[in-house]
Amino acid sequence: VILYFAVVTLWGLFLFIRSQAPSGSYLGALIIGVGLAAVQGLSGILIVLTTSHHPKDGLHWLYGFVILLTLPVIYGAWAQRSNDRRASLYYALGCALILVIALVRSQNTG
Predict the structure, then answer these.
(1) pLDDT tens-digit profile of 39-64?
(2) Contacts 24+ apart (CB under 8 A), 15-20
């Protein structure tokens, strides 16, 4: 997930620098990224339900929800109204946020 969102962040910045709106391929990649995050979250929930391993703090759950909701919120709040180069920037910044959260959580959870 970390590597995937690193690539999608760079792709969005590339589109923004070239003054291009998000392409269908890019939007498809974003949907795949949300799907990957959802699968990772569901596997984490499965681990919690079937083993004695639980997150050390509630922030783990919060970060998971933020990761899942970031791109849909960006789509609904900003990008849907401006399908131009700004939408590429919004998505790139959202992917960067997801990337930073995933990196921080991976350092804290091992």
Answers:
(1) 988 998 898 899 988 777 778 888 88
(2) 15/85, 15/88, 15/92, 16/85, 16/86, 16/88, 16/89, 16/92, 19/85, 20/85, 20/88
